[in-house]
Amino acid sequence: MNPVILIPARLAATRLPNKPLLDIHGAPMIVEVWRRAVEADLAPVHVACDDPAIAEAVRAAGGQAVMTRADHPSGSDRIFEALQAIDPDGRFDAIINVQGDLPTVAAETIRATFAPLKDAEVAIGTPVAVITRDEERTASSVVKMVGSPLGGRRFRALYFTRATAPWGEGPLYHHIGLYAWRRAALERFVALSPSPLEQREKLEQLRALEAGMRIDAMEVDEVPLGVDTPEDLERARAMLAR
User: Fold this and answer.
1) Span 96-121, pLDDT tens digits
2) What would the 3-class secondary structure string for 35-95 be?
3) Residue 58 — φ and ψ, nearest 5°?
4) In terms of residue numbers, what domain contains 115?
5) Verdict on whether the full-model pTM lies above 0.70
6) Does residue 242 register a pLDDT over 80?
7) Domain annotation covers residue 169
């Protein structure tokens, strides 16, 4: 396959204003995310952003950025606009969506996200990690993947939920919000209306499952820190200092 990595980033953030440009050891956070994506050594990397300041920061670090509209409802819509802008001829047949607020994400996690697409029947790949903290088993902020094991730390995802699931003894899996899309799957997804379960659970990936699109998950050894609060930012700074 011929993939591209796209990192959606928007300047507006309710809990952490100007989040992509916040400093982490002398570099804007979006530049740290871009560096992690480059370290994965999988594909060209572009930042899809809605503000010239983000684009300038990425380009100053040696990266590539593409401007998109500010009114996109989701990162998936933003990367689709960016994809059309950078590749109107369809050379890239897979898109890896790395969230713009994950400055500590491991290169191995990005590579694992892409791995399920080696199976021609899979439309979307995504990573999961075993939940180890008891409080996360019941936390609605921790999205769980319910899936059938396929061997080799891979699962066929059957459902995603904020509830504690599945019932009974055994591990629970924390879903990590990175996605690898076949181009045709992304094109189909953004053309669909939000689905009933997506709206109820507030989980965009359920739209794909409800439309019959196959999602496979790969187990990884980390849950990358998503930066949403000043406390998260300090944790990210400490982690990257090490």
Assistant:
1) 999 999 999 999 999 999 999 999 99
2) HHHHHCCCCCEEEEECCHHHHHHHHHCCCEEEECCCCCCCHHHHHHHHHHHHCCCCCCCEE
3) -65, -45
4) 3-236
5) yes
6) no
7) yes
